[in-house]
């Protein structure tokens, strides 16, 4: 019992120390129900937030990725997608899972896009730190794939 009490006190001490070291401010960028961003999020090295609109409800399919700038301006980075899902900022580009078409899109921060590769049922794309590689998840295949910078799976 004494050991448990000491462990509890130690954990409380660590928690209080961490709480004292870090202060966080939570800000609501988009109001609930705005319908603007409802899935993937990523932030580039300039602090710009990107979010996908998958539109995952009856009769609505999302078509774009929005850019939320630090000055509060919101605009579409890219349109013409079909259910853009998970997104990732990696090595200067945004990578997005265009889930309904089974495509991985590579998008520069100016909005120029190209299809990097195709994978049925793709739902998320993540950049691998320190490399030019990506990891992609396919719900249709229940598989995680590696993708190189040239789009080879």
Report on the structure:
With 153 residues, the protein is mostly beta strands. The chain is 13% helix and 39% strand. It has one helix at 2-21; strands at residues 41-43, 49-53, 64-68, 74-78, 84-90, 93-98, 103-108, 113-118, 122-127, 134-138, 143-147. The strands form 3 sheets. It has a 4-stranded antiparallel β-sheet, with no helix packed on it. A 4-stranded antiparallel β-sheet has the order 5-6-7-8, with no helix packed on it. The longest helix has 20 residues, at 2-21. The mean pLDDT is 80.
How are the strands ordered across the major sheet? 1-2-3-4
Biggest sheet details: 4 strands, antiparallel
Q: Topology as H/E string?
A: HEEEEEEEEEEE
Distance between the termini: 54 Å
Note the beta-strand portion: 35-45%
Structural class: mainly beta
- Total of helices: 1
Radius of gyration: 19 Å
Query: How many strands appear in the DSSP assignment?
Result: 11
Q: What is the average of the pLDDT values?
A: 80
Anisotropy-based shape: globular
Characteristics:
mainly beta; four-stranded antiparallel sheet; globular; 153 residues
How would you summarize the topology of this molecule?
Layout: H1 2-21, E1 41-43, E2 49-53, E3 64-68, E4 74-78, E5 84-90, E6 93-98, E7 103-108, E8 113-118, E9 122-127, E10 134-138, E11 143-147
Antiparallel strand pairs: 1-2, 2-3, 3-4, 5-6, 6-7, 7-8, 9-10, 10-11
Short description:
This protein has 153 residues and is mainly beta. Helix content is 13%, strand content 39%. The protein has a 4-stranded antiparallel beta sheet, with no helix packed on it. It has a 4-stranded antiparallel beta sheet with strand order 5-6-7-8, with no helix packed on it. A 3-stranded antiparallel beta sheet has the order 9-10-11, with no helix packed on it.
């Amino acid at each position: 019992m004494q050991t448990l009490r000491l462990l509890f006190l130690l954990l409380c001490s660590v928690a209080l120390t961490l709480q004292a070291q870090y202060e966080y401010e939570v800000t609501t960028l988009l109001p609930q129900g705005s319908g603007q961003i409802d899935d993937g999020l990523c932030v580039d090295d300039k602090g710009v937030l990107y979010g996908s609109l998958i539109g995952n409800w009856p009769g609505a399919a999302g078509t774009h990725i929005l850019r939320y700038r630090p000055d509060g301006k919101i605009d579409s980075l890219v349109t013409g997608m079909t259910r853009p899902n998970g997104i990732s900022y990696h090595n200067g580009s945004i990578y997005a899972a265009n889930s309904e078409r089974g495509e991985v899109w590579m998008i520069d921060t100016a909005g120029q896009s190209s299809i990097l590769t195709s994978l049925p049922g793709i739902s998320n794309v993540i950049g691998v730190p320190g490399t030019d590689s990506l990891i992609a998840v396919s719900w249709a295949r229940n598989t995680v794939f590696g993708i190189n910078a040239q789009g080879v799976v």
